[in-house]
Amino acid sequence: MKEHMIDSNGVKIKVYEYSQTGEPLLLLHYMGGSSAIWRSIIPSFIEKYRVIAIDLRGHGKSDQPATGYQLDTFVQDVRVVLDALEIEKVNIVGSSLGCYIGTRFASMYPERALSLVNSEGALVDKSERANLEPKEEYLNKYFSAPEQEFESRETLIQHMKENWLPWNKEREMVMKDFEPRKLKNGRVTFISKRDTLRQIAEDLYDKKIEHLYENIHCSVLFLPAEKEGELNEKLAFIKNVERKLNNSKTVVIPETSHAMMFDHSKELINEIKNFFDYTV
């Protein structure tokens, strides 16, 4: 594996290149996560694809600027990374936030996207949900609480084992070399700052995603989670945008929740591979 730290307009983006041959495959993680969420997925693709995973700005080992968490800024980070690695065209697999970034990238640079996999993300326009709270109420509900603090890395990991359930080898792989963010009071917390996550959520709240699919030329695999909620609403959204696409496929893996790479990694791998074999 090669590691890179690539400068994107003054913000350093951490990049992990797991293999150097084959068609490029870019993995984009969910909000609050890091490239480590893909560790159970990566080994199944490195023989055939040039697998690359990045820590988005504000996450993992990338820089955490005070501002600059708009969707288009994330997209430009991706473009800069691909340019630095001399990658002209790429397959993109995203989870949640990563799906929004991948979809926006494929819309802005349709000639550079070979395929797009959206795992539980970019499947509905948030601001048009009938049951979604007003913007400030929504943001305060999820992002106004103080950051969690822990005495040490060990107590943080123990907290995760007790609360990030079901604790299994896929989750353990994510945390094996986890380096918490140190606080001024000597305690530690999670890497991404609460204000960073709020800025991301605030920007996404107002985004209209449906029209982005009008300019996407590549094949798209939609993977809505069965148990995440609002499945019928997401399927209706997908059905509508499919009319804008040249080729697409929708699969609902039974019993899946938001981050399906942890509890249904084998099924997720199989669906992505089947999609690539058919379209790429």
TrEMBL record:
Keywords: Hydrolase
Pfam families xrefs: Abhydrolase_1
All residue ranges annotated as the AB hydrolase-1 domain in the record: 24-121
InterPro entries: AB_hydrolase_1, AB_hydrolase_fold, AB_hydrolase_sf, Epox_hydrolase-like
GO MF annotations, alphabetized: hydrolase activity
Keyword Cell division belongs to the record: no
Protein name, as recorded: Alpha/beta hydrolase
This protein's record includes keyword Chaperone: no
